[in-house]
Specification:
- The protein is α+β, with helices and mostly antiparallel strands.
- About 60% of the residues lie in helices and about 10% in strands.
- It contains six helices and nine strands, in the order H-E-E-E-E-E-E-E-H-H-E-H-H-H-E.
- Strand 1 and strand 2 form a beta hairpin.
């Protein structure tokens, strides 16, 4: 099923963004689902069941089409339809990657603000966690964009990967930071009291919420644009099913 990674990443990392933690893109104006996993490159796409390697549909531009292992001959008009279909899927895959990376970056930045305020910007563990954030972004991009310009759509593995990486690698580091930096954290809090400033917790909360809300608004707009693109793909699919009956059983994108 389609998983809106830009949304699920924010939910999974515990930020304050408003979103739906499900397997659809669902907003006030858009509700789209994708019921297969799609790998799409500059001149091909492959459709498989979610979390399965079984190849259901394979298209290589301009005229090689396999459906359930059987080759289908394409007329010039059908070839144009399939090439347009692949191109639109490719753009959607690229946009999904960009939104996902931005969502992960927002979540990690929010946590970084809190950690930096508590332990100080030059604390070794703060620098280590900043490096981890950069590594997580790179590893997420590698999962979504394999071999360059080959994007993944509809696979739930990315959301699972981010959640698992956070729980197994990031959370233990935060716990260790809190234990090892108790003195530093206490000093920052005490200093805030002596200087008559706001409590460090209050300032951290305000800074993190402000940053998340501003960037989440931008992501929401991009998600709406992606949803509109997927609705266009859904319309093209209807035309393709009529023109190429062997593909009629594979309704990749569904709008409600």
């Amino acid at each position: 099923m389609w998983k809106p990674l830009a949304i699920s990443a924010l939910i999974g990392l515990g930020t304050a963004a408003q979103a739906h933690d499900n397997i659809e893109i669902h907003t006030d104006d858009c509700n789209v689902s994708l019921d297969y996993s799609v790998s799409v490159g500059p001149d091909f796409f492959i459709v498989t069941p979610e979390d399965d390697d079984q190849q259901l549909v394979y298209f290589n531009s301009p005229d090689r089409l396999l459906v359930d292992g059987n080759q289908t001959s394409l007329t010039p008009q059908q070839q144009l339809l399939m090439q347009e279909y692949r191109q639109q899927l490719h753009v959607a895959g690229r946009d999904t990657l960009l939104i996902t990376l931005e969502a992960v970056d927002i979540a990690m930045n929010g946590l970084s603000i809190a950690i930096t305020a508590l332990a100080g910007p030059d604390h070794p563990d703060t620098l280590e966690l900043q490096q981890f954030s950069a590594d997580l972004l790179q590893r997420t991009e590698e999962r979504l964009n394999r071999e360059g310009e080959i994007y993944q759509l509809g696979a739930s593995e990315i959301g699972n990967f981010v959640d698992e990486t956070i729980s197994t690698e990031f959370e233990p580091r935060i716990e260790r930071l809190a234990k090892e930096s108790a003195g530093t954290i206490a000093w920052h809090a005490l200093k805030a009291v002596f200087t008559g400033g706001h409590s460090i917790e209050e300032q951290v909360t305000k800074d993190a919420e402000r940053m998340v809300e501003q960037r989440a608004d931008v992501i929401e707009q991009k998600a709406e644009q992606l949803c509109t693109s997927l609705e266009t793909i859904d319309q093209l699919e209807t035309e393709i099913h009529k023109a190429i009956p062997t593909l009629s059983n594979y309704d990749l994108v569904q709008t409600k």
